[in-house]
Amino acid sequence: EAGVAQSPRYKIIEKRQSVAFWCNPISGHATLYWYQQILGQGPKLLIQFQNNGVVDDSQLPKDRFSAERLKGVDSTLKIQPAKLEDSAVYLCASSLDGQENQPQHFGDGTRLSIL
Amino acid sequence: EDQVTQSPEALRLQEGESSSLNCSYTVSGLRGLFWYRQDPGKGPEFLFTLYSAGEEKEKERLKATLTKKESFLHITAPKPEDSATYLCAVHPRGGFQKLVFGTGTRLLVSP
Asked: Which of A42, A93, A101 sits opposite B87 (nearest CB)?
């Protein structure tokens, strides 16, 4: 079974620029999550999709972050404009059904550095 | 507010030296507690889910246990390949699964 795919693996931009990350979840997984992991911390949930609908975006800084999951499969996360404090690893995860207690499976993330 | 605290922050063991990692939690009803392993430059890898106090699960040299306030990850006779960061996360009672992670324990096993 193929895992969660993310790209790019690394991205370096200057502050105030924009950036986008892409995620392809495990086939058949209805629930998709985006996390932010700052160095030395655990992952923090940004947004959760069930199929192509948002079920939780309470911790997403909506003035600069946006995400979409068209057709309920792939997803993109965008930051515009980026700030220095956005430097982190952005992880995508998926699970069969977010309403059940099933494990989330993570991709290897995109490491974002803001200069 | 739901919180997860892991200790110690870092642990260095000799190969074969058994030890335990701690995960203390404060949550508004626990629907599940998850343990993940994270290698440098990789995403977290799922290890265990525990659902209720008294439950135990094992995988190779790892055993996870759960009480009403904390979980332990016991590592028996560790090997260098067990070196990683171990993350604990809780799923508070509610609708959709929303994991709250601790900051992790960095484990280094020396040969």
From this structure: A42
Domain count, chain B: 1
Taking an 8 Å cut-off on Cβ atoms, the answer to whether A98 and B96 are in contact is: yes
Give per-residue pLDDT as tens, A54-112: 999 999 999 999 999 988 899 999 999 999 999 999 999 999 987 777 899 999 999 99
d(CA A15, CA A91): 21
Query: Is the pLDDT reported for residue A38 higher than 90?
Result: yes
Please state, in angstroms and as integers, the Cα–Cα distance from residue B11 to each residue in A90, A92, A98, B4, B49, following that order: 26, 28, 33, 18, 23
Domain ranges of chain A: 5-114
- Collapsing DSSP to helix, strand or coil, B89 comes out as strand
Domain A5-114 has CATH 3.30.980.10: no
Q: How far apart are CA B46 and CA B34, in angstroms?
A: 8
What confidence tens digit (pLDDT) does each residue in B11-58 have?
Answer: 999 999 999 999 999 998 899 999 999 999 999 999 999 999 999 999
> Among B91, B99, B100, B106, which would you mutate to test the A interface (most chain A Cβ atoms within 10 Å of its Cβ)?
B99
For residue B67, the enclosing domain spans 8-18+63-84+103-111
